[in-house]
Amino acid sequence: MTTCLVRFRAIGAAALCAAVLAAPHPADGADDARFRQFLDREIVPAARAAGVSAGTLTRELSGLTPDTSLPGLTGPGGGGPPKINYQAEFRAPARYFSDNRFTALVRTGRSLMARHKRTLDAVERRFGVPRRIVLAIWARESGYGSASIPKDALRVVATRAFMGQRQDFFKKETIAALKILDDGHIRRREMKSSWGGALGQPQFLPTSFLRYAVDFDGDGRRDIWGSAPDALASIANYLKAHGWVPGRDWGYEVTVPAGISCSREGPDRGQPIAKWVREGVRRVKGRDFPAFELKLPGYLLMPAGRFGPAFIATDNFFVLKEYNESDVYALFVGHLADRYGNDVGFVGDWRPIRTTTRGKVRQLQLSMEKAGHDVGGADGLIGFKTRRSLGVLQQQRGKAPTCWLD
């Protein structure tokens, strides 16, 4: 994951860089005594119950202090949520898809695909996930393992358990981090994370490490920090465990006739791809859908409404969203994976979209909620529920639906 993202779901991720104004932090050391009490009263008993040895607890927790420089902290015991900066500019999807950015990633990725061919062959055989998908996630999460991941992971998750958002969530992550150290997979000084607590090259939270990390190089350790085979296999194992369907792609760029409303987007509104074809949806460049796909479900995906490329996504697209719940993230991974074979961009254009602020988007969402529309939460971000509700509202007002701000 990029350094500006924190994952709070299965593995992660809410974009907080432009969103969170960290609450004022106490002076360094002011909460050290309370932090020590928190560790002794809440973390140590839970870690012992989870099987962490007394030696590990003594070694790793002695002298541990909270890192009050982390963004998004609230205060011990949950002193109220951090403020959201709704004056921040709302970012349209097009910003994520610069051709120059993809070309650089493709060049490096092709070289690494050749270097790790034997490993990737074995990963595909064992987990059924294509190498290009695994490689694209590796690129997106840590720049193929080259990104700086500077934080002391145990200190990060323990601090968030003590004085961050979702404290109960991070208590579990703290216990899991101690379990990783107790199992001997990594030494503390090497167990680095992002400021959100995501570990190593695949950017797993500690609980995800325990469930999905794989020792693929056979050295007896699940080293997602320093071992490319372990990192690649762990990504594939995560996707397999979350339902990756072997043999299916993630999705296909399409043209959508005006008669098909963009308000039909979403994972709950799928239908066999053959039915989309009968309604006039076509793959770009005159290609046909693979014959085996026609009877399988497909889902309309229009991340910028009528102002950008359109896609028929498969179930595997939503497996990518289990890694990070953003539509744009999953589309980035799928598109990069496609470009390893043929480095060309989307056929459809990202048309200019008026810029605004998250606050104005949120105000619109709140007014739509009052009118009975499901926008997926008034957070100032435009997910598929907001997009399709915009389309319905536009239709109700006699306008051609664009499923985007107008």
TrEMBL record:
**Does the record bear Signal in its keywords?**
yes
Signal peptide positions are: 1-29
Q: Which GO terms describe its biological process?
A: peptidoglycan catabolic process
Q: Which UniProt keywords apply?
A: Signal
- Pfam families according to UniProt: SLT_2
Which parts of the sequence belong to the Transglycosylase SLT domain?
42-338
Entry GO MF terms: peptidoglycan lytic transglycosylase activity
Q: What is this protein called?
A: Transglycosylase SLT domain-containing protein
Q: Which organism is it from?
A: Rhodobium orientis
